[in-house]
Fold:
Amino acid sequence: MENITQALLARRRDYVSQPLTEDSVAADPLEQFNHWFHDALTAEQPDVEAMTLATAANDGRVSGRIVLLKGCDARGFVFFTNYESRKGQELAQQPFASLTFYWHTLNRQVRIEGKVEQVARLESENYFQTRPRGSQIGAWASPQSRELENRASLEQRVAEFTERFETAPMQCPPFWGGYLLRPDYLEFWQGRESRLHDRIVYSLQGREWRRLRLAP
Structure:
């Protein structure tokens, strides 16, 4: 097997990008995120809504996974999942999390931190009804993050819920819904030459956003 370390040492890439300056960013970080998100859409960044969600349990152990952003407004950032999953259990223990977006086509990264809460039940129900039917069935069928005997047992559950909802109205599972991360920290990272990257941070101080630059 190829030595991974040697392969990594041979990989080098310089980040050639336009500067990110204090004067070029919006006063409000959510407005700045909106600008960058649409830039990524225009650049046809694959999976532009994919973000790493990091959570922590009471013992301090941290876990991360990719989830999809499903809403962004003045409140913050919304995603949906099974409340009984590992991330759901950890958010019940420690209601703080971080999100990370990496848009490699633009050499950009956004880091977001804040407190997390469940969205209103109606918001979860309304979003659930927009999902493809297969994804709706999957939400019911998957005991997310729990051990499965085999793949066949999952497929059996899918078959059971498919039959159940053939005639019954499709409803949002009570154990599934949305979370809202209310940000108090956002960092906009722009890759630059020689690893001298630009990092502009917004930190919430009371009700005001403080803007500053960090060393790369």
